[in-house]
Amino acid sequence: MQLGLSVSDSDVSSFTPLVVLELADDTKAEAITWLLNRIRDKQQNGGAELLVNQLLFPAQDDQKPNPNVFVVGSTLQRLLNGAEDVGLFKEFQDGTMRGFTYANRESFKDFNEGFLSDAECQYIIKHELDTLRAKNEEHVPGYPKLKLYPGKSVVRRLQSKGVLIQYFPLHNKEDLKRLSFSWYKKFKLSLQPLDDIRHYFGEGLALYFGFLEYFTFALVPMALIGIPYYLFDWEDYDKYVLFAVFNLVWSTVFLEVWKRCSATLAYGWGTLSRKKAFEEPRAGFHGALGFNPVTGREEPVYPSSKRQLRIYLVSVPFVLLCLYLSFYVMMVYFDMEFWAINIYNENPDIATSILLFVPSIIYAVVIEIMNLLYRFAAEFLTDWENHRLESSFQNHLVLKVLVFNFVNCFASLFYIAFVMQDMVLLRQSLATLLITSQILNQVMEAFLPYWLQRRRNKKVHKRMRRLMGDKELPLLGQVQLETEMNTYLGTFDDYLEQFLLFGYVSLFSCVYPLAAVLVVLNNITEVYSDAFKMCHVFKRPFSEPAMNIGVWQLAFETMSIIAVVTNCALIGLSPQVKAYFPESDTQLILIVVAIEHVLLAFKFILAFVIPDVPKHIQVNLAKLEFDSLEALKKRVSTHFLKKEP
Amino acid sequence: MQLGLSVSDSDVSSFTPLVVLELADDTKAEAITWLLNRIRDKQQNGGAELLVNQLLFPAQDDQKPNPNVFVVGSTLQRLLNGAEDVGLFKEFQDGTMRGFTYANRESFKDFNEGFLSDAECQYIIKHELDTLRAKNEEHVPGYPKLKLYPGKSVVRRLQSKGVLIQYFPLHNKEDLKRLSFSWYKKFKLSLQPLDDIRHYFGEGLALYFGFLEYFTFALVPMALIGIPYYLFDWEDYDKYVLFAVFNLVWSTVFLEVWKRCSATLAYGWGTLSRKKAFEEPRAGFHGALGFNPVTGREEPVYPSSKRQLRIYLVSVPFVLLCLYLSFYVMMVYFDMEFWAINIYNENPDIATSILLFVPSIIYAVVIEIMNLLYRFAAEFLTDWENHRLESSFQNHLVLKVLVFNFVNCFASLFYIAFVMQDMVLLRQSLATLLITSQILNQVMEAFLPYWLQRRRNKKVHKRMRRLMGDKELPLLGQVQLETEMNTYLGTFDDYLEQFLLFGYVSLFSCVYPLAAVLVVLNNITEVYSDAFKMCHVFKRPFSEPAMNIGVWQLAFETMSIIAVVTNCALIGLSPQVKAYFPESDTQLILIVVAIEHVLLAFKFILAFVIPDVPKHIQVNLAKLEFDSLEALKKRVSTHFLKKEP
């Protein structure tokens, strides 16, 4: 089943197909003709100047195939121009990363052999499609109600109106085989092939896997310290002071060092100094016709006061209601817990000691279900808030989800630790929550979609074989297979999971030192299952340039600040520390608070003192800036020479 | 005594003199000739293309005048080119601020009438002089030891070797008269003429006065609330809880709103989006010859490891020693205080009740003296650390000075408040420190220099009159007068003073509500005395483009965080609050700590939520960016058209 870049069905396409476009099967012919013309048209006429061909699937007995599936490709020349357009950074002859320009193309390293990766080509095609702008057309031909606004993206418009169902990049079987082998198929102790991942899936995803790897390695010392704690001081809860101190220092240093690692990665991938493109409105954004204050053009606008009203009058109350519900469920859990403990105390045997864990397990499952339901509600609400830009949408979504997930997952632990002050229950509850949620996550995230996908694959294979006999499955089969795959919704859920794991470790692991061990084990399997799901379960996602992990850095930092406070409070509660201040609690509390303030101050100073970008990359960036200033100066002085005489 | 821009001594200069250059009086003739030629040379030959003339002072009986004083001016054409060079932002036809380009000059608002202010012209000349770079000369002619490095600033080199004594901009008597009238001479209740100040002194100084004004206004509500507290609850120390809460909210909102004000001012002055120039090394920077890693050119370099050693082995211990000394002095003060209180208790009459204030007054004077001495030491040390860039020098100096000043001024107050818990003494000590330091500051800062300057002025006037009879004093007299004036060392000390006043108000004013009133009164006179000293006591400073108050914003924010902690602790100590928790201190402390954490979190969220730049300016900035992207696109597509056929 090879396909790759070689063109095996010459009747279908005479170019390397990179991106698939699927229109609704009842799309009017005139609209299709118009769209294809616009895509094929020359750039100076406002077209995208790409190659596009229809894919005709043979009719099948059980269902009529969608006739409106197209593959898009491009000439190399067009791709190189597009690379300059999107502001791609590539390695220059002298080893620094520079913005690619067509004029200087020969001065870039390895210009001739595979200069642009598949993912980059697909990203460029996506960008060119997205920025295909309406000209003078008032509406989409055949759809008088589907208005177009001059200068706005045609594809976004078609997408938001349901004419364009989806468009996605095709997998490259050869590369995928090679990548998956070096990534997760061979049994090895080496690091992940981050550069290859970036090559195939883009920087955003590669950064996620880089972070996952870094986080896992950072946890190893903690896990190593945790094991003897667990083995030898099993019932010695009050020995965790040292561990808490370690925790504090670790969580601060961890995040600061990651910033530097991420800057190094992003520099090597050319995304660190790349400028952000002017952001297009989201596909789902709608509003009354008005004037954009920035561009001065006529387009749909939505007053931000209305959005504020929706946020404060609907979203905020809804989130509060959900939080209340979460607290209510927590109280039910505690009732169950006491009931189980009472039964155990009345009749302590094996059956009842197992029963002790049942409430926690049920609670963990309920938490996961609530998180899942809330996630959908949050997405719906944030969509309804009608944010104009994707970045603003994402920020509001992340904030909503983080607040709820944090409370939902950790509220019971905080309650047990600081209100009930029951360290035995805390440890037991923490362990059950952690293990249950890990198991559920792995199932939900990888095995379930894999199983569904396998069933679907088999069906498609059987169908195709029936139609074409025993021939290898070429482009048609691959496109049909991938069209039906699930869409990968971005790194959001993956980061969220890591965020919650980070919370379990940094907030409470001093009470249950084995937490770090469990998270390390989870993350090792996570790497494999995530890698597998990216390669075989989901559609290939478009690569997304990323210079850092974005809002998640802030989220993790906030968590580490909360961790300082929590750990200090746990230290203050430990019998060991309390023993030093037998006569007065007041003094103990004052000292703990003082230490906490010093630690927080220290944390801020540390974050301030450690440069976010390593020295040698700073020098490289300064070099680039210096060169562009020098070039500017030259331009200015030739300008003078022309002016002067 | 008019002079202004009209040229009244045509034998001396045939252009408007803007900047004065003073070389050492024993400078070799060949060096002078070389320097003047380089300044006058055309830009394409690497010269500055400025106009420069010698000023010859008539010989005087008592002393020989320095023959090496020069005035520098420029043609309008050169200034306009220079404006593009330094990246000046000016108001465009459509009301937005845009980077000035010579090609589009006619599209800027008011291009014809007084387009460039005096201060801008002088700034451009300074920039052109500073970036006059060595070409192939190996050393300054006549000085074989004074090496030059290709591409490095000639003027900086001459300055650091003592050949160039100083260069400064000339006052413009007409403008100055107008400015000083509208600024401080007329009795008025209007605001300061910030735009005029910026026009005459540049953005850096105008922002300082803007901040001073804003701070003073922000204090007015606090002062108004403080007065009844002071009048009616004179002995009622425990009523300050409400005031402390007000304090907390105030200090947070104050700084957030200032950021927006400052962005508005900076946008209107065209400095908000202006790019920073590539920073030249400081004049005093020295080191062994090596290669600059950024430019690849040969120049003096100084290993940062050596600098780190100097910082950690000398500077840090020195600062710690000074802090120890400050604590020692504080302890002596407390001894004096107890001694005075004992005397008063033994024999309470008017004389001994006055004696009660003596230790505080002495201590306040000693604090001021220590601050002054430390300031010199810190400057010397930071200079010795040999920082390459002025910005790095400034950061290290500010950090050193702030830490010491903070401890020196506030340590005794913290000690009284939290160790001795004596609110009566705290109030008395605060009042004495505040009033004494204000009086001392005003004297040291304005009246003393003014008095010295007046004496000097009279001497110069007399001398000139003797030489020239009763003729008006033209250029020669003005230059001689201004050459001998003191140099204004920048806004550092002015901001430092405001920082300490902010500390007195935000940290402790709830104990002594009159503090805000005193600071308001002080700042009103401060505006007048600062305005006066800028106009008549010091040399005119070069204008400095500034987009915000820089490191001081951070300093004030840090202070406001400390204020939250301090105020919460003061609330916790108040008898009024303590009365609510008669049986247990523990509960009280826990509640206070919890409230403190909530307030701190609230503060951070507030800082995060309030946008630093007002909406309408964000839109303007986005417009600018959009336009430049559009222009780029046009450039790219013409590029295609050229390439394609």
UniProtKB/TrEMBL annotation, chains A, B:
It is a multi-pass membrane protein. Its main location: membrane. Residues 197-622 form the Anoctamin transmembrane domain. GO terms for cellular component: plasma membrane. Coiled coil: none annotated. GO terms for molecular function: chloride channel activity. The chain crosses the membrane at residues 205-228, 240-258, 311-334, 354-376, 397-418, 430-452, 501-524, 549-573, 588-610. The keyword Transmembrane helix applies. It is found in: Membrane. It comes from the Eukaryota. InterPro entries: Anoctamin, Anoctamin_TM. Keywords: Membrane, Transmembrane, Transmembrane helix. Belongs to the anoctamin family. PANTHER family: ANOCTAMIN, ANOCTAMIN-10. This is Anoctamin. The gene is LOC107657579.
